[in-house]
Specification:
Length: 288
């Protein structure tokens, strides 16, 4: 069952009345766009990253190595959550030359279906902007990280380049860390293979007692009761109320993960009476 949060926004009219707009928080889960070819995918993760000590000081190299390790472990953690995926890791293999023969050899040695190599990593602190508070200057920084992986198939022939970027705002009072940005950059590189969730905030119509009652049931997660309240209104004689009820029911279906039915109800809402809520929802559901 989806969880909901109630958000109220007050639009005050004069001094005596106000209208409360209520929103349902609707998480929408997305499956990965790409999947591994085997039911049980064994992935060998290899760190190939090196840093030029003639151009980067020792302290920064140590920080970058630690962050590169965070990128690898972050990738491993998320990949392990996928059904049937097993991970092996060679964290210190910077001398590994990723070519057809070496990939094929490592895949055979570790019984891996895939070899995932971290080829490059970089991160640093970037000044975003400077604001003035009287005579004082306040600087705002972000840590930006970039990663480049290659996902090789066990035959050493077929491969895919995977690049990721991430930006993390930093609070200068406490210094900065690149580990979080490194992990997020790795997840960005692997995003097509990972499931993800987007949270949508959907306004609900509550401008009558039945609609208000349906909203309370929706926010409580009692979708079956909300359906029983809304369905007769949709079939009723008042097109405005029918349109609003159809829209609210579309949100219910979206919350349950039935995008096709949600789209049909949103279209029906506009058929009963054109409204901005339904039009916006239709556009969003088509993208989902």
């Amino acid at each position: 069952m989806k969880l909901f949060k109630l958000i109220c926004i007050l639009f005050i009219v004069g001094l005596t009345s106000c209208n409360v707009v209520q929103y349902a928080t609707v998480p929408v889960d997305y499956a990965p766009k790409l999947v591994f070819k085997t039911d049980t995918a064994r992935i060998l993760v290899v760190n190939r990253v090196t840093f030029d000590s003639t151009r980067i000081n020792k302290r920064k190299i140590m920080a970058l190595k630690a962050a590169a390790y965070s990128a690898i472990t972050g990738a491993e953690k998320e990949l392990k959550l996928l059904p049937g995926v097993k991970i092996s890791s060679l964290v210190d293999s910077v001398s590994f030359s990723a070519n057809k023969d070496s990939v094929k050899h490592l895949a055979a040695k570790y019984k891996a279906n895939y070899v995932l190599t971290l080829d490059s990593f970089n991160a640093g602190l970037v000044l975003d902007n400077v604001q003035y508070d009287g005579n004082a200057q306040i600087a705002y920084y972000s840590t930006k990280a970039s990663v480049a992986f290659t996902l090789h198939e066990s035959n050493g022939i077929f491969f895919k380049k995977l690049k990721g970027l991430a930006t993390e705002p930093q609070d200068g009072r406490f210094g900065y860390s690149i580990d979080g940005a490194a992990r997020n950059a790795a997840l960005d590189a692997l995003k097509d293979y990972l499931p993800y969730t987007i949270t949508n905030y959907r306004p609900l119509y509550n401008q009558s007692d039945p609609l208000a009652l349906s909203v309370r049931q929706i926010l409580a997660g009692r979708f079956d009761i909300a359906f029983k309240i809304l369905n007769p209104i949709i079939d009723g004689p008042d097109p405005k109320q029918a349109s609003r009820a159809a829209y609210n029911l579309a949100v219910v279906y979206e919350a349950q993960g039935d995008i096709d039915e949600a789209l049909e109800l949103a279209k029906l809402s506009n058929q009963k009476q054109q409204n901005d809520y339904a039009t916006t929802l239709i556009a969003a559901l088509i993208k989902e």
